[in-house]
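Hi everyone, sorry if this is the wrong subforum. Our group has a chain we'd like a structural model of before ordering constructs, and none of us has done structure prediction before. Sequence below.
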Amino acid sequence: MPEERDPSPGAAGPARSLSRRSVLGGAAAVTGAAAMSAAAAAPAAAQPAPSAAAHLLSALPAVHDIKKRSRLVDYEVVELAALMRARVVTAVQVTKAYLDRIDRFNGPFETYGDNGLYNAFVRIDRDGALAQAAAADARFAKARHSHEDLPPLLGIPFGIKDSIAVKGLEAKDGSHAFDGNAALRDATVVHRLREAGAVILGHTVASAFSGSITGTFAGNAWNKAYVPGGSSQGSGVAPVARLAAAAIGEETGGSIMMPSAANGASGIKPSLGTTSVAGLMPLSPGYDVLGPIARSVRDASLILSVILGPDPADDPLTLSAPDPYPAMPLSARKGRRPLAGTTIGIPQSDWMRTSGGIRTGTAPQDTYDADHLAAFTRLVQQLTSLGATVKEFPGLDVTVPANDPYFSSSDVLATVDGSPVSPSSAVLSPNRYEIRYWDAVKDFAATRPADQAAALLAQYGRKAPGETEPSFESASRFAGQVPAAARVEGERRRRTLQANYQAALDAAGVDFMLVFSLGARIGLRSGGGFPVYRAYYQLPNALAWPMVSFPVGYDSTVGLPIAAQFWGPRFSEPQIVQAAIDYQEHFPQYHNAAPPDPDTTAATVAPRMLRSAEPATPPELSNDPLVAEEALR
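Answer:
Right subforum, don't worry. Here is the predicted structure as tokens:
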């Protein structure tokens, strides 16, 4: 079927300004449900409230202001929302356009390996998506007479990471070891998307057990021979490759930011507690967050506005966020200098890791390749032209023990079974224990064939001193026997790290920070990985602070994207997102660019594998904080 072409002409809604909300994070707390929670998440009340919904709808662009794009799939979410409301296009047309591209460019489903094409979606619900789109069109038609207030994402097609519950679909977290893990209910975030009218296309592929920040199951949106970033790799690829209008990713340590950066997407990693993780197959409660990945930051902000909010029954950590949450920005501010009065800091001790190890004592920008350094220099000039003060400042050197008593500390707070308990393990291991992290997997494994059960044991078991084989019992026993005093001390140290980093910003008069998560052209899927990347990419997760990633250029040799990230104090999303929206309003050429379509002659069907087909993940590239942080000690 030929791809839908759009008949219409894009753009900016009314300007608005916000005050910053910077709230220091508290101690880690138990979140989510058990490891199999994708099977039984109980959705919370829909968000947003009616007054908030009116705010979201008021920010949609007028149809006559929307710039005509060459293909229907090139329109941003906010533009599609406006065009559907004007009945210029229909939800069914939009959904079919994305399904057509999935048919042509995704390759075979249920493949945790290289399927020859993008492999962004690991499974889709075609009939369900078309039914949802048809229902959306019926609501649009009815509203012309009833004047019903329609939800903001009505008819917009989404992909959902493979570790998040979508009712009626299996969630496998990147491995056939979870075959049969069918969701009985939607995760809270998916439920809120449905309440806002979204069309759920299906699951986007994840790294195996969400364990790698590089990823090889999917092909990069710009060149499928290159890594896509992980672990939310399919969610990073799908919006940019025009296989979905937007997607939901999950991050424990880099898993939204890295695929956003690698594919040139616009993604938001929220502060801990901003969005509910109920219905997520957890990795590390107290770090895990769900957030949007789209083509523009204003699209991602609209989506975050819909999915954030309290979920007291299923995720108590959401009670730590401001309520009501400060309104997320949805349009650029007026004028040529919208960033006037904003101070953006470049932390000089945010060390990068290269093939030679962590480059302590070397300014991050001194490790960038020529293309990344040119993009970085240009970005600083662009931000300055918009009125921002951009300056280098020390940041917080977490290699100094007095600065960081928690994240990469080698201190031993206790021993269990002869194994040391680090400060971060003292927090995260009990969190896992209290949600039945291992027991839930063990219960599921008991219902599966022997080969599946063995694969799960190999992934989740732990070999205690004196034992010959890993076991769920040893893993659970270790986490359950961390002394309460060690846990309290670990939580105190986490708060100290947060306070120390906030003090570093305050001392320099910095509102938020600018970093490059990736400092050189990424590698090939055949073992290339990330040649230069932030050594402490998990630090924002340990701090519970938010980040936003957005493209700022392209590599001169292969044409892969170059991306920047803003990050700041907990619950500073409105400020860092507003700055990114302002930037994209004045420099739209980066996020509006579209990759070439891949060659479709190489689609293959990989064999079903219970263990990962990805190369073994080095500990320093793990999304698991207890693995990655150990590599820093």
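For your construct planning: The radius of gyration is 23 Å. The longest helix spans residues 484-508.
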